[in-house]
Amino acid sequence: ALAPTVAAAQGAPGRLEPGSHGDGAARREYRLYVPASHDRARPAPLVVFLHGCTQDGDDAARGTRLNEVAERDGFLVLYP
No. of H helices and E strands in the chain? Predict the structure, then answer.
């Protein structure tokens, strides 16, 4: 299971939801950052952050502080 390190690293108040997607042949894990103000009853923009090959999602989130921007501007961030 994926630990919620991306949110913790930035101190952002939202939630980090681990998940996975795929079929029996291939499955990819991801983390979805959900801002604290997000209302699940309303649609929100989604940013899919594709990190470099020597990075992981945690490192990319720390370096970009994207979760803080998501809090301010009200979008979700997916870290595959």
Answer: 3, 4
